[in-house]
């Protein structure tokens, strides 16, 4: 009689040891697919939701996900505004942890107990979280903490990399998957990066949408292949790119300077930040906001043979009936096409309605610098 005994490779290789068996063991384990991981996900806004969705939708790569999200503080119509990550997590039936839970009198955020929670997970993943995760929490994860950063680090470090990608006129935009640094934002080693072209009419919303999806795809790859990516991760200190601090966007950045800015700069400012701050000029002593502008190609090709263009100074504006647009002279003598605008706080006007209402059809006017 023959007795069949089924020993697994793991059972045999862990019961005996020798140099040969050790090499066999390493080879056998290298051929096995990585086991599914557990992830504690830190996020807030809609840039992070594609990454959360990608992790939850790949059970062969990630077997368990829980979410860390701040408690809502904003209110709309008397109700708390639910953060996009929290809303998606609830829809997916995921457990949500409220961190940071509060602030001390000095303003320090409290993450008490989060390190114990982190120790139960393979990875921490932070995507557009907006809070500095304490070093003791970062170091508690079994495999490390990953961050999705929407730029080619160290090119744009700071709170507004998408906006500054457009403001600086970069022709490509990138997303980087990095190890989270224990003491500084955006300084960790780069495990993986990918890029997309930035065309002349690309807006913040365009970049936000495309890079959030690209980031999610590359994050999932980084989690799945972390063991092979980690040994070849690149230190940002070894990169050729000159770091640029992508500072927070403020209202002064939207004040148009016709006498100083070339047309391309005005165009970039509008595309980069008009969703966030008022991009405006002054007309007859009142602030007027640009609501829609012409494509870059239209602006570059704008010439008006019937006009004595040499008589138009920066800020001069006239109405072109053939295109139904206003054209404003910029510092480099190029023209910016404007389709819609409004006095701040008032209703939006078409260029034609504005020209009719303020006599610009008959006589050019002037927009002043703010």
Could you explain the architecture of this structure?
With 370 residues, the protein is α/β, with parallel strands linked by helices. It contains twelve helices and 18 strands. The strands form four sheets. It has a seven-stranded mixed sheet with strand order 5-2-1-6-7-9-10. Helix 1 packs antiparallel against helix 2, helix 3 runs parallel beside helix 4 and helix 7 packs antiparallel against helix 10. The longest helix is centred in the middle third of the chain and has 21 residues. The chain is elongated. The termini are far apart. The N terminus is likely disordered.
List keywords for this structure.
seven-stranded antiparallel β-sheet, seven-stranded mixed β-sheet, elongated, 370 residues, 18 strands, disordered N terminus, alpha/beta
Gyration radius, to the nearest Å? 27 Å
- Percent of residues in β-strands: 15-25%
The average pLDDT value, as a whole number, equals 87
Q: What's the number of extended β-strand segments?
A: 18
H/E order of the elements? HHEHEEEHEHEHEEHEEHHEHEEHEEEEHE
Low-confidence stretches: 1-18, 24-31
Shape call: elongated
Helix content class: 25-40%
Tally the helices: 12
Largest sheet: 7 strands, mixed
Question: What would you call the structural class?
Answer: alpha/beta
Strands of the widest sheet, in order across it, are 5-2-1-6-7-9-10
First and last CA, distance? 97 Å
